[in-house]
Amino acid sequence: MINKFLYFLVWLISSINLSILYFILYPIFIIFNYIFRYRKKIVNQNIQNSLTLINHKKRKEVVKGFYRYFFNLLIEILKMASVKKEFYHNRIKVINSEVLENYRLENKTIILMMGHHNNWEWASQIVSIVAKQDFVGVYKKLSNKSFDKLMLNIRSRFGVILVEMKDSLNYIFNNKDCKIIGLASDQNPNVNSKTYWTEFFNQQVPYSTGAEKIARKMNYPVLFCNMSKVSNGYYCIEFEILEDDPQNSKDGDITNKFIKRLEEKIIEEPNSYLWSHNRWKHKK
Q1: Tens of pLDDT, residues 242-276
Q2: Closest CA to 49 of 150, 159, 254, 199
Q3: From CA 141, how far away is CA 150, in angstroms rounded?
Q4: Residues 6+ apart with CB under 8 A from 162
Q5: Cα-to-chain-centroid distance, residue 8
Q6: Domain ranges (residues) in the chain
Q7: What would the DSSP string read from start to end of 82-95?
Q8: Which listed residue, of 147, 176, 234, 262, carries a Cα 20 to 30 Å from 76's Cα?
Q9: Does the predicted model carry a pTM greater than 0.90?
């Protein structure tokens, strides 16, 4: 009953025009953030330690820009509960969807890697809509059961097949159908003696090599989802090939190619990365 009420409430709010939602809710967000200062220390520390090539004034501008981006992201995710397919077609321009189709015609499953940059939630929706093959989104379960179920309902509205992270390897290895496997690959992995460590913005971090392991074992080509912001609520996407022949790549190559490309993208649009995520909390 609570889940149904929660979903109806979210759907009702999300039915409001996106521009009006921005206008109505932004003052509330500003007041809330001023009082609680959401992860202010983590945001400032991450930006200061990562964007070392810009001065203090510009880093402060990135902090300010991040909070505006974060507000927009929350509203855009909320909006997902009620929109139709046309909404995504109108809001996201996919520059080279033929890349996905070419792999489908070759009956090749591909891995699509993306970071928590711009709106990865919308990216999965438009890929699922424009691609003729299935789109499998690997997700991390939320601790709150009601919100987890809500997000599952929202994310799967247009055919996204959602697989929990802990079940993803079993699903992928046992399902040989041609598909697109979507991975937000910059999350913190479990840290143990076998953890892969590498540099991300000149800082040692543990990195998940799940995408690379799958790609090399199954010889699945790996693509980078380059999502750029055009204006508030409008994006464009271009697919870039990171590795077309994974079985002949060296250990760590795919992971490091992804990290390098993600770094370049963040530097290009620094406001639009999830700086509130405690990505650098683990120390080697």
Answers
A1: 999 999 999 999 999 999 999 999 999 999 999 99
A2: 199
A3: 11
A4: 136, 137, 139, 152, 155, 156
A5: 25
A6: 2-272
A7: T--HHHHHHHEEET
A8: 262
A9: yes
Question: Which residues neighbour 140 within 8 Å (Cβ) at sequence distance 6 or greater?
Answer: 164, 165, 187
Determine the Cα–Cα distance for residues 238 and 96; give it in Å rounded to an integer: 6
* Structural element, H or E, at residue 231: strand 222-231
Q: How far apart are CA 108 and CA 190, in angstroms?
A: 30
The two three-digit tokens of residue 111, written as one number: 């891995």
Helix boundaries (H) for the chain: 2-14, 18-36, 40-50, 56-79, 85-91, 98-105, 120-130, 145-155, 165-174, 210-218, 253-268
Q: Give dist(CA 90, CA 111) in Å, integer.
A: 25
pLDDT band of 3, cuts 50, 70, 90:
confident
Cβ neighbours of residue 278 under 8 Å, at least 6 residues apart? 39, 42, 46, 188
The answer to whether 223 and 183 are in contact (CB under 8 A) is no
Query: CA 29, 33, 39: angle at the middle one, nearest 5?
Result: 130
CA–CA dist 50, 59 (Å, integer)? 10
DSSP annotation of 96: T
